[in-house]
Amino acid sequence: MSWRLPKLVPRSAPVILLVLTLAAATGFAAVGHLVARYNANQQSRGRKLYAQGVADTSAGRYDEAIAAFRAALTCEPTNSQYQLSLARALRDSNDPRRLDEAESYLVALWQRSPQDAAVNLALARVAAHRGSIEDATRYYHNAMYGVWNSDPDSNRSKARIELIQFLLKKGATANAEAELMALSTSLPPDPATHLKAARLFAEAQDYSGALAQYREVLHLDPSNSAALVGAGEAAYNAGNYAVAQHYLQEALNRNPQDANARQLLATTELIVRTNPFRSHLSDVERNRRIVSAFSQAEKRLTECAQQTGVDLNASAASASSPLVGLQSRWTATKPELDRLRSPAETDLPDTIMDVVFQIEQETASVCGQPQALDLALFLISQKREAAIQ
After folding, report:
1. CATH assignment of 187-274?
2. Could you tell me the sign of the dihedral formed by the alpha carbons of 373, 379, 382, 385, in that order?
């Protein structure tokens, strides 16, 4: 058989090269197929782990979520969504030791895509966790003006609202008010969003701004009970009692069980009935209210003195309580009531009511929150200019 072997061996170099090439191609194809299958399996495993991490995050199981996202990243180390989700879970776990790691992932993502709104929002929340007003404001603004994958207008409003909430929590009221003004000019025509903005204005004690937002809610949704009560409270806190009375009455008409609205309405109606500074009052009615308020102030002063053991008949020079001096001032002013009817005494109503207001404010300081008519007079004294309306 040995004499036949040379005939079976190819003698042509091209044929040998072709055979080797075919063998190499087959090998590369096989390896490529194996690699592709491995990568596909890894990606599939990564997606399952990521879905598990998302479920754990939604359930508040942050330790499990972190472990799942880390495992997903071993399957796809360059997947930006996995990195972002891991950073969020690290941040929201409320473990201060994890904030640095969360920030490192987010900064790396930010460096690759500084206009990514979701990344900037995540960094803003890290800064908020740390209490940094400057960093949080910068990243929240980046998020507002960054690139959103969907619904950019709504997301920008939500980011600004979140910034405002953070600023109010930190006591940065001036910064919050500036953001509120910007927010009010860019809100979508959505009652829920305007309602949230109204409450933020109220929290910042900008009651005029709150009232404007509550009115916008009622324009979009006239039957919104929360907006009716909110508008009444905002007008009440602003000292615009006639407007407060209107909204609170409407709120009670829709929901008679609202105890808060009922109490506010009772105080508001008492203020409206007793306020001597309301416009369009006749001279007779104005004077009647002044005399009634003056008498009530003396009653409140007497009761407060009894409560604190102060002798109002003591010498003002030797007395340690300011109540004694107020009693002397009330007594000296009392004869002026007889001159209220004189048209020439144009400043007299203010002079008399100054005594009333001083008594109500001082007794509130000494004896605590007043009630009923005294509360009405106290509130008028605090919102005197608004009460003229």
Report:
1. 1.25.40.10
2. negative
At 320 the pLDDT is: 75
Q: What is the location of CATH 1.25.40.10 in the chain?
A: 187-274
Cβ distance 155 to 163 under 8 Å? Answer: no
What b-and-e string marks burial along 160-181, b requiring 16 or more CB atoms within 10 Å of the CB?
bbbbbbbbbeeebeebbbebbe
Read off the pLDDT of each residue in 123-144 and give the average, rounded to a whole number.
Answer: 95
Residue with tokens 């979520």: 65
Q: How many whole angstroms separate alpha carbon 8 and alpha carbon 319?
A: 133
Rounded percentage of the chain residues whose pLDDT exceeds 90: 62
Quickly count: other Cβ atoms within 10 Å of residue 152's Cβ.
14
**What's the pTM value of the predicted model, to 2 decimals?**
0.74
Query: Which range, of 11-15, 32-36, 147-151, 226-230, averages the lowest pLDDT?
Result: 32-36
Kindly report the CA angle at 149 between 185 and 157, in degrees rounded to 5?
20
